[in-house]
């Protein structure tokens, strides 16, 4: 059955070149990433010039897109090297820049032809704000996390701009760009990449009568999978996943699950309850806080606070990445964790499906039998048809 | 000296009798983050302020969702325009709407961004005729404040900076105190840092959290030609009265008697990004020049596995290993193997090659061509 609505772009985080390749291989249509400066993740690996070039080439060979974040709040000194960097990004043909500062927007629009996407950091919440930014050359609005799908459709219609909404991942509790807790209490500017996540801390709340310990500023994690139909019908151009600091299992699982869901929707024009349940289970297989639909449907309510320390008990954990495959002989996993013989593993295929396998005997690269694996150990496994280099392997907890 | 003073009630207004007050900032609860007045109470206060010869600024500083936009603009349009002299906004959408649908010039709050002259110039270039005043960020340093305010003056736009008052740390539309069954106000003490006593306020617009200390840079701002805002909207009015007494007498007892400690914020220097290089180990960060790849495993007495991520290598070349502790080990390749331990004479990007084990090299060690 032909789908009458365009399917949104699936935009995944790429905290490193490795994660870029994983996300795109597992189905993301585009990735966003940061260079060594100007992003909001100072602690992430971020990309060198050579990595940026390689990442863009990798994406374009697969007809996919790369967006580079320049979304920190700039000080004057930051502009000294901006044009040189933008010129480099234009030379390697990045597909868009994600920007929050008006001065940066103005400089880029005046000196390059790279499309500019307005970062969610600018907290664009309404059509009039969209029109303000459109006048400066913005092509796409990455709307505030407080914006609903319905509102996003209205903003798109009123502005004529592309709109992008977060569909999955950790949430800032504050309006983005309006939080300076980290700046004033930890000496690390959250709007320049140094967020210390003070909103995730435990606080005693004291009023006239009571004292209550609480993680009152910590938000549950966004999960908009069940609203995919609304995203499509509203004409949202891009659905975005948060998480540049998260690991390869997350990059793979999130890209694979959402891409499979979008493909399924494209074929069937709906996602039935059974299939939705399957996709939801997949999204529960890695570490996350309790999920909620954010403000995508209705404004986030009183139950949107994640008032506890621990994340969910994940059903799986990453075992490692397949770093090489010798056809018909063996493949090698770069192990990231300890597992025991007879462990059940799942190999995430790039296309739809998962290979389930029990490792009866663990062997290192010298074919020596092991009692257990440890992180940073190469594990040799007999060849299984269907495995591919860079497949992510998870182990059932 | 020129002050802008946030006034939330009649008592505040009576506390600020001073010749240096250029304007008072009033508001109604529907449009303002902190003001609690309904429209009738606002009109009364506005009338009183006018009778005292004060210019009145209507604060419309909430951030506005698409769904509420029309309703709030409707509310704003219903306010008698003679009850204020200027409108102050923060949401760029509200600003854009007013520019296109109302007459006059507006005051724009840029306290949470616009930390560079380029952004101000880009704004002024397009909206110069609509801007009465820009409220600069209190994250700016003294030199920036001077430079930006002087630039704005040449554009015939006034500028303002918070001089004494609460530092807003956090603004969310979510009702975070109600979620804890607490009404309207609480103090928050961090259990994971020494910080105690954040004021947290919840109202119909959401939840607001304020710094433990108030900003006080009166002495520093004295000589700078900029409007100085007094914003004690989450405080009792005694502070207001005491402040104006203080600036007339420069009695240092005032500061000692304040209920909250004070800070000069970043007015002297802003070093909030100097810690960034320490957030990750630079030794395991890749440097492009001569980069070969990274060590996957070093099995003592057996092998050392390297993944090629950069330049290809071949037998006879000298490698430089930099381990996560920063130790540098040089090694010339005499023999190399593939994963089946077959001899090879070169390795290209994405290959994994094996060498004999080398001491002091650990996984994540970076490998460069020497």
Helix and strand arrangement:
The complex is a heterodimer of chains A (397) and B (370).
Chain A: E1 9-13, H1 17-25, E2 30-34, H2 49-61, E3 65-70, H3 82-91, E4 96-99, H4 102-111, E5 116-118, H5 127-134, E6 138-142, H6 149-159, E7 162-169, H7 181-186, E8 203-206, E9 211-214, E10 221-223, H8 228-234, E11 238-241, H9 248-268, H10 273-283, E12 291-292, E13 316-326, E14 330-335, E15 343-348, E16 354-359, E17 362-364, E18 369-370, E19 377-382, E20 392-396
Parallel strand pairs in A: 1-2, 1-11, 2-3, 3-4, 4-5, 5-6, 6-7, 7-11, 10-12
Antiparallel strand pairs in A: 7-10, 8-9, 13-14, 13-20, 14-19, 15-16, 15-20, 17-18, 17-19
Chain B: E1 3-6, H1 10-15, E2 21-26, H2 39-51, E3 55-60, H3 66-78, E4 86-89, H4 92-101, E5 106-109, H5 117-127, E6 131-135, H6 142-154, E7 158-165, E8 168-172, E9 185-190, E10 196-203, E11 206-210, E12 214-216, H7 218-221, E13 227-231, H8 237-249, H9 253-256, E14 262-263, E15 291-299, E16 303-308, E17 313-314, E18 318-322, E19 328-332, E20 336-337, E21 343-344, E22 346-347, E23 352-355, E24 366-369
Parallel strand pairs in B: 1-2, 1-13, 2-3, 3-4, 4-5, 5-6, 6-7, 7-13, 12-14
Antiparallel strand pairs in B: 7-12, 8-11, 9-10, 10-11, 15-16, 15-24, 16-23, 17-22, 18-19, 18-24, 20-21
Question: Largest sheet of chain B, described in full?
Answer: 8 strands, parallel, barrel
According to CATH, the homologous superfamily of the largest domain in chain A is: Aldolase class I
Largest interface comes to:
A-B, 101 and 90 residues
Question: At the fourth CATH level, what is the homologous superfamily of the largest domain in chain B?
Answer: Aldolase class I
Uncertain segments of chain B are: none
Low-confidence stretches of chain A: none
Number of strand segments of chain B: 24
Q: According to CATH, what is the topology of the largest domain in chain A?
A: TIM Barrel
Mean pLDDT of chain A, rounded to whole units? Answer: 93
Question: How far apart are the termini of chain A?
Answer: 39 Å
The count of domains of chain A is: 2
By CATH, the architecture of the largest domain in chain A is named Alpha-Beta Barrel
Indicate the proportion of strand residues of chain A.
15-25%
**Largest sheet entry of chain A:** 8 strands, parallel, barrel
Q: Helix share of residues of chain A?
A: 25-40%
Structural class of chain A: alpha/beta
- The outline of chain B comes out as elongated
Taking all Cα atoms into account, the compactness measure Rg of chain A is: 22 Å
How many domains make up the 3D coordinates of chain B? 3
Indicate the CATH class of the largest domain in chain A. Alpha Beta
Strand order of the largest sheet of chain A: 1-2-3-4-5-6-7-11
């Amino acid at each position: 059955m032909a789908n009458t609505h365009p399917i949104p772009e699936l935009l995944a985080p790429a905290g490193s070149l490795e994660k870029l390749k994983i996300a795109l291989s597992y189905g993301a249509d585009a990735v966003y990433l940061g260079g060594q400066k100007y992003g909001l993740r100072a602690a992430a690996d971020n990309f060198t010039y050579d990595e940026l070039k390689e990442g863009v080439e990798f994406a374009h060979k697969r007809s996919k897109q790369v967006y580079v974040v320049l979304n920190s709040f700039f000080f004057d000194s930051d502009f000294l090297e901006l044009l040189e960097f933008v010129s480099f990004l234009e030379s390697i043909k990045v597909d868009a820049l994600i920007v929050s500062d008006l001065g940066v927007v103005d400089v880029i629009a005046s000196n390059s032809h790279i499309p500019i996407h307005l970062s969610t950091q600018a907290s664009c919440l309404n059509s009039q704000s969209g029109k303000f930014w459109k006048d400066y050359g913005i092509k796409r609005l990455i709307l505030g996390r407080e914006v609903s799908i319905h509102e996003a459709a209205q903003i798109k219609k009123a502005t004529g701009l592309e709109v992008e909404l977060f569909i999955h991942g950790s949430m800032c509790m504050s309006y983005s760009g309006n939080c300076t807790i980290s700046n004033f209490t930890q000496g690390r500017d959250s709007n320049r990449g140094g967020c210390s996540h003070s909103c995730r801390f435990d606080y005693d709340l004291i009023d006239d009568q009571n004292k209550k310990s609480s993680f009152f500023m910590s938000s549950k994690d966004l999960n908009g999978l069940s609203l995919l139909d609304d995203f499509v019908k509203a004409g949202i151009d891009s659905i975005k996943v948060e998480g540049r600091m998260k690991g390869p299992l997350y990059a793979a699982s999130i890209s694979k699950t959402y891409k499979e869901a979008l493909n399924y929707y494209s074929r069937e024009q709906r996602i039935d309850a059974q299939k939705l349940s399957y996709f939801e289970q997949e999204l529960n297989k890695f570490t996350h806080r309790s999920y909620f639909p954010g403000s995508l449907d209705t404004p986030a309510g009183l139950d949107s606070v994640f008032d506890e320390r621990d994340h969910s008990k994940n059903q799986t954990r990453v075992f490692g990445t397949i770093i090489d495959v010798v056809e018909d002989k063996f493949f090698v996993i770069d192990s990231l964790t300890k597992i025991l013989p007879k462990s059940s593993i799942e190999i995430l295929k790039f296309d739809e499906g998962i290979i389930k396998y029990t490792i009866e005997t663990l062997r290192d690269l010298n074919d020596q039998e092991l009692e257990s694996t440890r992180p940073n150990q190469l594990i040799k496994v007999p060849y299984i048809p269907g495995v591919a280099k860079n497949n992510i392997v998870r182990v059932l907890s | 000296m020129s002050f802008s003073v946030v006034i939330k009630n009649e008592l505040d207004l009576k506390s600020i009798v001073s010749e240096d007050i250029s304007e008072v900032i009033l508001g109604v609860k529907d449009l303002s983050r902190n003001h609690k007045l309904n429209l009738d109470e606002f009109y009364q206060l506005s009338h009183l302020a006018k009778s005292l010869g004060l210019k009145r600024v209507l604060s419309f500083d909430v951030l506005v969702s698409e769904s509420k936009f029309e309703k709030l603009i409707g509310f704003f349009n219903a306010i008698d325009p003679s009850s204020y002299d200027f409108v102050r906004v923060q949401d760029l959408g509200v600003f854009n709407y007013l520019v296109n649908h109302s007459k006059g010039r507006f005051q724009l709050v840029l306290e949470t961004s616009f930390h560079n002259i380029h952004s101000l110039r880009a704004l002024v270039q397009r909206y110069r005729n609509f801007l009465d005043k820009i409220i600069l960020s209190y994250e700016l340093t003294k030199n920036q404040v001077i430079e930006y305010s002087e630039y704005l003056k040449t554009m015939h736009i006034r500028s303002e900076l918070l001089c004494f008052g609460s530092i807003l740390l956090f603004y969310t539309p979510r009702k975070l105190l109600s979620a804890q069954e607490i009404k309207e106000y609480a103090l928050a003490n961090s259990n994971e840092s020494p910080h105690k006593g954040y004021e947290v306020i919840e109202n119909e617009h959401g939840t607001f959290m304020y710094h433990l200390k108030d900003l006080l840079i009166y002495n520093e701002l004295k000589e700078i030609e900029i409007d100085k805002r007094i914003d004690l909207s989450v405080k009792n009015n005694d502070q207001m009265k005491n402040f104006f007494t203080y600036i007339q007498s420069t009695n240092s007892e005032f500061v000692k008697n304040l209920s909250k400690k004070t800070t000069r914020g970043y007015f002297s220097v802003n070093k909030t990004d100097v810690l960034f290089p320490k957030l990750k180990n630079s030794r395991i960060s890749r440097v492009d020049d001569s980069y070969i790849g990274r060590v996957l495993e070093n099995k003592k007495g057996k092998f050392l596995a390297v993944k090629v991520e950069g330049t290809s290598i071949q037998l006879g070349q000298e490698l430089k290993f930099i381990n996560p502790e920063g130790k540098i080990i040089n090694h010339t390749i005499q023999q190399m193997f593939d994963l089946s331990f077959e001899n090879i004479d070169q390795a290209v990007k994405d290959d994994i090659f094996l060498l004999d084990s080398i001491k002091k090299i650990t996984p994540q060690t970076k490998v460069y061509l020497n």
